[in-house]
Amino acid sequence: MIRRRKAIAGEKNEEDTMRSAARYREARPSLFASLFVVLAVFVIGVHGLKDISIDIPLAVAAGTTVNMSCGYDLESDTLYVMKWYYKGSEFFRFVPKEMPPTSTFGELGNKVILNKSDAHRVVLRDLQPNYTGKYLCEVSGDSPSFTTLVDVGYMHVANLPKGDPQVRFEKIRYAVGDTVRGNCTVPSGNPPANVTWTVNGVPVNSSFIMNVTDKLGDNQQLMSIAGLDFEIIPDSFSNGRLHIVCNANVFHLYKKQADVRLMEERPRLASVLGTRESSYIGGAAIQIKEWFLDAAVTLLLCSFR
Ligand SMILES: *[C@@H]1O[C@H](CO)[C@@H](O)[C@H](O)[C@H]1NC(C)=O
Ligand SMILES: *[C@@H]1O[C@H](CO)[C@@H](O)[C@H](O)[C@H]1NC(C)=O
Ligand SMILES: *[C@@H]1O[C@H](CO)[C@@H](O)[C@H](O)[C@H]1NC(C)=O
Ligand SMILES: *[C@@H]1O[C@H](CO)[C@@H](O)[C@H](O)[C@H]1NC(C)=O
Ligand SMILES: *[C@@H]1O[C@H](CO)[C@@H](O)[C@H](O)[C@H]1NC(C)=O
Ligand SMILES: *[C@@H]1O[C@H](CO)[C@@H](O)[C@H](O)[C@H]1NC(C)=O
Ligand SMILES: *[C@@H]1O[C@H](CO)[C@@H](O)[C@H](O)[C@H]1NC(C)=O
């Protein structure tokens, strides 16, 4: 339409080269005419191609086949070209007027399954994590409007952890006042798994989260380790038990749990006298110290009465 407008202005110039005054008088109507064309095209455009909407998965596992679709409403327009881009580079094009209508470009173009891809869809096989990122579809209507619409979406291609999460805790029995310390390790993947904890069904924050690099060829893989560290209060136990669950998720693609049941250790005189298993001597020693402190404070208070 811009070309059309220039052409009108050009004809006028040739006709009116000798009569500059007249040219200025006529410039106004020609400008209005041009504006009218622009407006008309704009209005026609609004009634043509519309409602573009990209539909790609949020995340897929590496190596799988992915359907990407791009919906649009042509209304009275006809399709001129449908293009797909990844990170700004075109990888697939569909032009109904050409034979064959499909063309592909670049490394990602080689992954297009041509006989499953068309004016609304592109199907890609064997995607690897380096194809995580922004995808764009662009649709253009044919003449007279040549309206072009785009929509974008972001897709993660994930290397999922190979294996289950594992929990490790310092010990099994705890008394009120003890600190529960443990961690949950999820095998490496890219991106690393999200790790969360619940204790008797109640969410508890991790004390730390680490992503540990584990290089594997070109793909950087990360192992997740989350720590749990909390002090037991009288309400912590449910029927003398703590059910601790570590949840590991990678989008909707990997959802696994590891759990452990810890037990309440009721204070007994025997434990104060040091008959606990030797491996828990650290915890017991602290308790003995506290018991003596309590006893000392009690004696002190008594002596003041
Ligand atoms: C892709 O689309 C085709 C046809 O619509 C369907 O049969 C297939 O299951 C889809 N594949 C995936 C991975 O969604
Ligand atoms: C698509 O092409 C492949 C070979 O490139 C062929 O094996 C497959 O049968 C074709 N599928 C359809 C639906 O035409
Ligand atoms: C993506 O990674 C694969 C290996 O997983 C490699 O062969 C390919 O060259 C990489 N492509 C790009 C664009 O980095
Ligand atoms: C995880 O817990 C185990 C057992 O308590 C411990 O040996 C290990 O050092 C812990 N690892 C980290 C990273 O905290
Ligand atoms: C857990 O972490 C969130 C976000 O960092 C914070 O808002 C919340 O207060 C924390 N909860 C506890 C019990 O520390
Ligand atoms: C671990 O990696 C994820 C994704 O790469 C990132 O969002 C998160 O902040 C990282 N966590 C830590 C503790 O480095
Ligand atoms: C981790 O959780 C955050 C917040 O819910 C989410 O945005 C992100 O996509 C998750 N990452 C993975 C790898 O599941």
Explain what this protein looks like in three dimensions:
It is a single chain. With 305 residues, the protein is of the alpha+beta class. The chain has helices spanning 2-15, 20-47, 106-109, 269-272, 281-304, and strands at residues 50-55, 59-61, 66-73, 79-86, 89-94, 102-104, 121-124, 133-141, 148-158, 166-169, 173-174, 179-189, 194-199, 202-204, 208-216, 219-231, 241-250, 254-264. The protein has a six-stranded mixed sheet. A five-stranded mixed sheet has the order 11-18-17-13-14, with no helix packed on it. It has a four-stranded antiparallel sheet with strand order 10-12-16-15, with no helix packed on it. Strand 15 and strand 16 form a beta hairpin. The chain binds 2-acetamido-2-deoxy-beta-D-glucopyranose (NAG) (7 copies). One 2-acetamido-2-deoxy-beta-D-glucopyranose binds at residues 65, 67. The chain crosses the membrane at residues 29-49.
Helix and strand layout, with pairings?
Layout: H1 2-15, H2 20-47, E1 50-55, E2 59-61, E3 66-73, E4 79-86, E5 89-94, E6 102-104, H3 106-109, E7 121-124, E8 133-141, E9 148-158, E10 166-169, E11 173-174, E12 179-189, E13 194-199, E14 202-204, E15 208-216, E16 219-231, E17 241-250, E18 254-264, H4 269-272, H5 281-304
Parallel strand pairs: 2-9, 11-18
Antiparallel strand pairs: 1-3, 3-7, 4-5, 4-8, 5-6, 8-9, 10-12, 12-16, 13-14, 13-17, 15-16, 17-18
Helix pairs in contact: 1-2
Bound molecules: 2-acetamido-2-deoxy-beta-D-glucopyranose (7 copies).
